[in-house]
Amino acid sequence: RAYEWLIPVISSLPNIISRLPSSASCFLLLRAYGGEGDESSDLRKLSSPLLQHVKNSLAGEFGESNAIRAADLLLADVADQTPDRRRCARKVLQEALSELSVEGGSENLLSTG
Fold this sequence. Notes:
The protein has helices at about 5-10, 15, 20-35, 35-45, 50-60, 65-80, 85-95. It contains seven helices and no strands. The longest helix has 15 residues, at about 65-80. The termini are far apart. The protein is globular, with a radius of gyration of 14 Å.
């Protein structure tokens, strides 16, 4: 449960986030979204810089291999047998992909309807 103290530290130092590998930011973001209650809500708020890093990673801003690693980690959790991990990964993917649109169209990659 080291992420409970690591997320606030990393989020307060943006220059550290830019040095994180995509897989590390995805892992921490998944942990921030993984809990329930007030503590998890606080972690989600603090993790917004990590969310931006994951968005940029998935968009390929840090290279194709980093985008693939980030997507692999998120999709592995979406396919996990544990319902909580699947729920958490879907939330993270929806948040991370919500602003990315399909090329040539205005629809979001993930639709809720």
